[in-house]
Amino acid sequence: MAELVRQITYRGVSHQPGTPTLEMRDISVAYAAGANGVTTQRGTQYALQAVSFKVEAGERIAVVGPNGAGKSTLFKIIVGTLKPSQGEVHIFGQGPTGHICIAYVPQRSQIDWSFPVTVEDVVMMGRVGRIGFFRWPRRQDWQIVRASLERVRALHLAKKQIGELSGGQQQRVFIARALAQEAELLLLDEPLTGLDVPSQEAIFEVLDGLRPDGVTVLVATHDLNLAAERFDRVMLLNHQMVAFGSGTAVLTPENLLAAYGGHMHRLSETDLLLTDTCCEGHDG
Ligand code: ADP
Ligand code: MG
Description:
Blueprint: H1 2-9, E1 22-30, E2 46-55, E3 60-64, H2 71-79, E4 86-91, E5 102-105, H3 119-125, H4 128-131, H5 139-151, H6 167-180, E6 185-189, H7 197-210, E7 216-220, H8 224-230, E8 233-238, E9 240-245, H9 247-250, H10 253-260, E10 264-266, E11 272-274
Parallel strand pairs: 3-7, 3-8, 5-6, 6-7
Antiparallel strand pairs: 1-2, 1-4, 8-9, 10-11
Helix pairs in contact: 3-6, 5-6, 6-7
The structure holds adenosine-5'-diphosphate and magnesium ion.
Adenosine-5'-diphosphate (ADP) binds near residues 37, 65, 68 and 71.
């Protein structure tokens, strides 16, 4: 009984003062052949190998790298749905499980869009960690849901089925869910892929609005121009950490050739052509 009460009243792990929002130390992940989400040290094909980095509060980070580089794997390790084969993850100084401050929006291809649920219900799901599973939302929770939808300019969509929305609208609704959750660390896996420029801009506008709240945002993207122009730092992955720093320091011809290998062609001293085949419908 005591255990049950503890679970019902549980509201997420506390944060260690003075620690980075996110720290990975020497993280390696190897998927077992054929197994979904199971890791092993025996398979030597590493999805991630010896990855270490720190992210401070309020930073906006672009995570780039070719298909299969380990971007989605990195996010799953941070949210704790996947256990690393080796290494440590710290979020506000604590292990990755039990945090209600992390919001994760998976790649579009990993979400079942036919699930019959309205937009406002999707956003209310963000409140579950705060309300607790066995209680009903209060008036204040519905107010937060409406305010979150308003912030992403999707309040008019509240009663629609999530599957009816355009890709850009769906991404904004999932960001609204993160707002309703009052997330401090937001992980967006390829939210810009397949969106037109105005829809991409709408998402950046929402992300800009999170800056004053000190929300830390990691965005996996294939768009190297956006990565360079719209983010504080760029993480270039290809199973290993190729480089992590300012866009100009990271996105050099040498680093890009190291990360993209055969998909990156040097046209001249200054021009590179990327022929990475990307991404809609890719299940990675
Ligand atoms: P990205 O998101 O950068 O495209 P992923 O993290 O999806 O990369 O994949 C990294 C590597 O791990 C790839 O080689 C991919 O084939 C492999 N992988 C990803 N998910 C699984 C899984 N569930 N089972 C086995 N291998 C996987
Ligand atoms: Mg991916």
